[in-house]
Design brief:
Layout: H1 2-8, E1 27-30, E2 33-37, H2 38-41, H3 47-58
Antiparallel strand pairs: 1-2
Amino acid sequence: MAQELLTTFADELDEVALKPGRGGVFAIHLNGERLSDRAADGGFPDLPLLKQAIRDRIAPDRDLGHSDARRAPGA
C-alpha cells in the first residue's frame, strides 16, 4: 500500500512513514487528519478509495485513471 501511494503521488508526497504499533494497529493519517483506522472502520481501507481521499486533499484536479470514481461511466 505504501509503495502504491508513493508511486501514484510521487510528485505530491514527501514521504510515507511506517510506525510500529501493537495489537493490530493500522491507521493512515495525512497532515494530522485520520483518513483510515482499521479498528474504527472495521478493516483495511480499499486502496482506490484511499487514493481518492488523498488526491482530494493534495491534488484535487488530478485524474487517477481507473481508480477514479469521479470519472463518467464508460470513460
